[in-house]
């Protein structure tokens, strides 16, 4: 609990690592995650550090591993992932891993290149086969067209007995006929045809037909529709133009056989080559799959080991060498409780490396601000993240996350109070909690789902607290439920039938004997759901409840600030800051809470009409208005109120001038209040307050030459004006914040009202319609109506309203609660740990 209440005590340690055992020592430290290393070479470029070549080797191996993972995923081979991570390999094994990976990459690239070449050849032969098959149907059609054209001229003989593919006829004509055939993309066929017509001016015969089969696009690898075309032309010049146009449109051009016999021979050769390519390609793929399957067995181990090696060399680059270059010196922040574990890790690394001189460590004093370490588990990490989003806590100050575990879901539930909605939220969170070890939930790449999963315990508590406040409000999907019998008895009013017919509303008189039988055992009486003034009653209740919760919450924050002052031994802050702040809060708004509770207890239904207005009483308190004839809550109220106002007014100048004057007095050699803390001390040179306190510490502890010099510097740096202006700002902020923050807690009432009204509107507009339909069709109608009601409930009331209440609860903690005691000016403890290494392959892109 102490570790959660405050950050753990830290110390600065200096490690002396022998050059031969530094790698093994850091490996042992990385497995335990004990220390945060500091950069001792800030002025040295990253590329000029000693172990930059080893880091580059690790990055090269990571590149090869990424390529292997990509090929393994492409081959649909499962990637085994172990639950136990292998240790960082010894230095000798690093060269073996590098050699194996390089050899495997060369082999895979060569086999993959051959496979792609075989696939490309197979695709070309397949396209050639389809082209020959489709263009065979063009011959008869072309012969008929050409025969018709040539018979119109007397000087040309007929071509009825000779096919167009035979060149003997054209030789007799004295012209040279040529053919261009191939495949063109479906999207380019229209533009291709128009370009041929415009460039060749109609001196070509263009025939085309769409392939029924989808062939693979060589560029994209996706199945695509293709058109087979055959172009007949006369003359060399037109032929050159046709070929250039085909190149521009990226057509796949293949040679066209001159006669039917050649066509038959080419088709037979293509079929044999395609069969051979299928056999060779199948064997190549089998061999490639065997290589990848064998690589997949070791790739998890290689991946983890390479990542650990790279992390170790990165940390080694942060260390500095001594003058002999035989020893590495590192400075680390380490929790005081983990110092024995760190010594054991260094001893273990020295034994593994068989070093003649063991590595060792020493703690060194420092005045730098240590990092903040708060140990968390899977339950508390979500609440700690909410606090850390505001700011990492300063070293050793009170951690609000411990109290946020209770206050955050409670304030959320006050705004979201509905038993039914809370139960649905609880079930959703319970599902994620029960299956939290499922790989799909742990490795989900969806940002929204990842956010829900990380905050599953927060949602679980929000659902539980919402069920509790829903029972207090007596709300379940905007409907009340009677756990106990009502405390109101209508039969005792003795209403007649005529009274019910003449009056649309009847009033229950609690002063009539037997009508009101005492307070309802738990929550709101369900009879209020039938009352016409239900909203007015609930508004008054929730508004006063919000004020009470808010003032208690803020007062608790001020009290936690007092614990901070006690811990840091700033006794003067107890008298000059904490007590005046607490008195100001309690004498003003604390008195308001007292009046609310006193009025609830002192007045009943019999004398409720004579009860004074709390709001008027509170306003008159600050205006000093009131005389003996006014209606007061209790005797002597005016005197009490004037005393409280006087105390609150006196507290303001104490807050304003007390601390600056006291620090100024200390700066001029005054004796401090109480004893100052000895031993480790955090001093921030930029803080005027700490500079003044340092002088008092010197007086109490005794001054050395170094202390005297530091004291002289402190005298020069201390500025009373800066301290005074800082205190003025804090005083004004606190006094005005007490008013604005109290009003800010009214959002608890406003959002609770909005949530209940939205739920009531949703029930009235959807479910009530389905329930009022005749029984014959009502059952059929109720199913879609209920489904629509649940969908709107989830998306509007659970998701949208839940997000709104969540954000308002975050604001109340960050602004109204934490600013009373939480500075949040620290930085997080980030140890060198192998636990932060990703142990799965989702980060690799296929």
UniProtKB/TrEMBL annotation:
<dbReference type="GO" id="GO:0006879">
    <property type="term" value="P:intracellular iron ion homeostasis"/>
</dbReference>
<dbReference type="InterPro" id="IPR026028">
    <property type="entry name" value="V-type_ATPase_116kDa_su_euka"/>
</dbReference>
<dbReference type="GO" id="GO:0051117">
    <property type="term" value="F:ATPase binding"/>
</dbReference>
<feature type="transmembrane region" description="Helical">
    <location>
        <begin position="410"/>
        <end position="435"/>
    </location>
</feature>
<feature type="coiled-coil region">
    <location>
        <begin position="94"/>
        <end position="128"/>
    </location>
</feature>
<dbReference type="GO" id="GO:0046961">
    <property type="term" value="F:proton-transporting ATPase activity, rotational mechanism"/>
</dbReference>
<keyword id="KW-0375">Hydrogen ion transport</keyword>
<feature type="transmembrane region" description="Helical">
    <location>
        <begin position="545"/>
        <end position="563"/>
    </location>
</feature>
<keyword id="KW-1133">Transmembrane helix</keyword>
<feature type="transmembrane region" description="Helical">
    <location>
        <begin position="639"/>
        <end position="658"/>
    </location>
</feature>
<dbReference type="GO" id="GO:0005886">
    <property type="term" value="C:plasma membrane"/>
</dbReference>
<comment type="similarity">
    <text>Belongs to the V-ATPase 116 kDa subunit family.</text>
</comment>
<dbReference type="GO" id="GO:0016471">
    <property type="term" value="C:vacuolar proton-transporting V-type ATPase complex"/>
</dbReference>
<keyword id="KW-0472">Membrane</keyword>
<dbReference type="InterPro" id="IPR002490">
    <property type="entry name" value="V-ATPase_116kDa_su"/>
</dbReference>
<dbReference type="GO" id="GO:0000220">
    <property type="term" value="C:vacuolar proton-transporting V-type ATPase, V0 domain"/>
</dbReference>
<comment type="function">
    <text>Essential component of the vacuolar proton pump (V-ATPase), a multimeric enzyme that catalyzes the translocation of protons across the membranes. Required for assembly and activity of the V-ATPase.</text>
</comment>
<protein>
    <recommendedName>
        <fullName>V-type proton ATPase subunit a</fullName>
    </recommendedName>
</protein>
<feature type="transmembrane region" description="Helical">
    <location>
        <begin position="778"/>
        <end position="800"/>
    </location>
</feature>
<dbReference type="Pfam" id="PF01496">
    <property type="entry name" value="V_ATPase_I"/>
</dbReference>
<dbReference type="GO" id="GO:0007035">
    <property type="term" value="P:vacuolar acidification"/>
</dbReference>
<keyword id="KW-0812">Transmembrane</keyword>
<dbReference type="GO" id="GO:0048471">
    <property type="term" value="C:perinuclear region of cytoplasm"/>
</dbReference>
<feature type="transmembrane region" description="Helical">
    <location>
        <begin position="575"/>
        <end position="598"/>
    </location>
</feature>
<keyword id="KW-0406">Ion transport</keyword>
<dbReference type="GO" id="GO:0005925">
    <property type="term" value="C:focal adhesion"/>
</dbReference>
<dbReference type="GO" id="GO:0036295">
    <property type="term" value="P:cellular response to increased oxygen levels"/>
</dbReference>
<keyword id="KW-0175">Coiled coil</keyword>
<keyword id="KW-0813">Transport</keyword>
<feature type="transmembrane region" description="Helical">
    <location>
        <begin position="456"/>
        <end position="473"/>
    </location>
</feature>
<dbReference type="GO" id="GO:0001669">
    <property type="term" value="C:acrosomal vesicle"/>
</dbReference>
């Amino acid at each position: 609990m102490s570790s959660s209440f405050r950050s753990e005590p830290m110390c600065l340690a200096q490690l002396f690592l022998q050059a031969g055992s530094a790698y093994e020592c850091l490996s042992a430290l990385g497995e335990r995650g004990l220390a945060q290393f500091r950069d001792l070479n800030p002025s040295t470029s990253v590329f000029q550090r000693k172990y930059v070549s080893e880091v580059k080797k690790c990055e090269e191996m990571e590149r090869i591993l990424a390529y292997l993972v990509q090929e393994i995923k492409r081959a649909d081979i499962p990637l085994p992932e172990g639950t136990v991570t292998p240790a960082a390999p010894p230095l000798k094994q690093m060269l073996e891993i590098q050699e194996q990976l390089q050899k495997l990459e060369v082999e895979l690239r060569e086999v993959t290149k051959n496979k792609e070449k075989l696939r490309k050849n197979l695709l070309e032969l397949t396209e050639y086969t389809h082209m020959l098959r489709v263009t065979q149907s063009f011959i008869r059609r072309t012969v008929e067209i050409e025969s018709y054209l040539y018979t119109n001229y007397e000087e040309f003989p007929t071509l009825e007995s000779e096919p167009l593919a035979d060149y003997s006829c054209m030789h007799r004509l004295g012209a040279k006929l040529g053919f261009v055939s191939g495949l063109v993309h479906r999207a380019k066929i229209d533009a291709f045809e128009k370009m041929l017509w415009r460039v060749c001016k109609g001196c070509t015969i263009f025939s085309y037909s769409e392939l029924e089969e989808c062939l693979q696009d060589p560029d994209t690898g996706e199945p695509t529709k293709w058109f087979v075309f055959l172009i007949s032309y006369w003359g060399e010049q037109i032929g050159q133009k046709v070929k250039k146009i085909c190149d521009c449109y990226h057509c796949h051009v293949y040679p066209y056989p001159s006669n039917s016999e050649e066509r038959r021979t080419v088709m037979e050769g293509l079929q044999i080559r395609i069969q051979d390519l299928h056999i060779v390609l199948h064997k190549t793929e089998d061999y490639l799959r065997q290589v990848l399957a064998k690589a997949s067995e070791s790739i998890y181990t290689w991946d983890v080991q390479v990542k650990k090696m790279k992390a170790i060399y990165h940390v080694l680059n942060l260390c500095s060498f001594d003058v002999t270059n035989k020893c590495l010196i590192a400075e680390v922040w380490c929790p005081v409780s983990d110092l024995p574990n760190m010594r054991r890790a260094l001893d273990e690394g020295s034994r593994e490396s068989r070093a003649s001189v063991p590595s060792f460590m020493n703690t060194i004093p420092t005045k730098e601000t240590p990092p903040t370490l708060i140990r968390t588990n899977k339950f508390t990490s979500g609440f700690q993240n909410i606090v850390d989003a505001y700011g990492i806590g300063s070293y050793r100050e009170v951690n609000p996350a411990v109290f946020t575990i209770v206050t955050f879901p409670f304030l959320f539930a006050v705004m979201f109070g509905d038993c039914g909605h809370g139960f649905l939220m609880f079930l959703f969170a319970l599902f994620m909690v029960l299956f939290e070890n499922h790989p799909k939930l742990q490795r989900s790449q969806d940002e929204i789902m990842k956010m829900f999963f990380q905050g599953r315990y927060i949602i679980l508590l929000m659902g539980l607290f919402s069920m509790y406040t829903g029972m207090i409000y007596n709300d379940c999907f905007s409907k009340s439920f009677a756990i106990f019998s009502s405390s109101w008895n209508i039969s005792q009013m003795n209403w007649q039938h005529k009274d019910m017919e003449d009056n649309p509303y009847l009033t229950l008189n609690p002063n009539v004997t037997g009508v009101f039988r005492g307070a309802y055992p738990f929550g709101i009486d369900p009879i209020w759901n039938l009352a016409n003034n239900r909203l007015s009653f609930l508004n008054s209740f929730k508004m006063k409840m919000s004020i009470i919760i808010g003032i208690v919450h803020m007062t608790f924050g001020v009290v936690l600030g007092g614990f901070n002052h006690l811990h840091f031994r700033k006794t003067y802050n107890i008298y000059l800051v904490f007590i005046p702040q607490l008195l100001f809060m309690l004498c003003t708004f604390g008195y308001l809470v007292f009046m609310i509770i006193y009025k609830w207890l002192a007045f009943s239904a019999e004398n409720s009409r004579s009860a004074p207005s709390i709001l008027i009483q509170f306003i008159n308190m600050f205006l000093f208005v009131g005389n003996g004839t006014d209606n007061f809550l209790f005797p002597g109220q005016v005197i009490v109120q004037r005393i409280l106002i006087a105390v609150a007014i006196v507290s303001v100048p104490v807050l304003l001038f007390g601390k600056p004057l006291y620090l100024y007095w200390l700066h001029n050699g005054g004796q401090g209040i109480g004893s100052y803390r000895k031993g480790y001390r955090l001093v921030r040179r930029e803080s005027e307050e700490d500079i003044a306190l340092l002088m008092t510490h010197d007086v109490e502890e005794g001054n050395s030459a170094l202390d005297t010099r530091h004291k002289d510097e402190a005298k020069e740096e201390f500025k009373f004006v800066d301290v005074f202006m800082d205190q003025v700002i804090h005083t004004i902020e606190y006094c005005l914040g007490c008013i604005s923050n109290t009003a800010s807690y009214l959002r608890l009432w406003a959002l609770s009202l909005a949530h209940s009204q939205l739920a009531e509107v949703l029930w009235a507009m959807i479910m009530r319609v389905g329930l009022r339909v005749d029984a014959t069709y009502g059952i059929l109608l109720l199913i879609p109506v209920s489904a629509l009601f649940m969908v709107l409930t989830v998306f509007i009331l659970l998701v949208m309203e839940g997000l709104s209440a969540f954000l308002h609860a975050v604001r109340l903690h960050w602004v109204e609660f934490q600013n009373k005691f939480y500075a949040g000016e620290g930085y997080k403890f980030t140890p060198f740990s192998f636990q932060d290494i990703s142990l799965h392959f989702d980060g690799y892109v296929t």
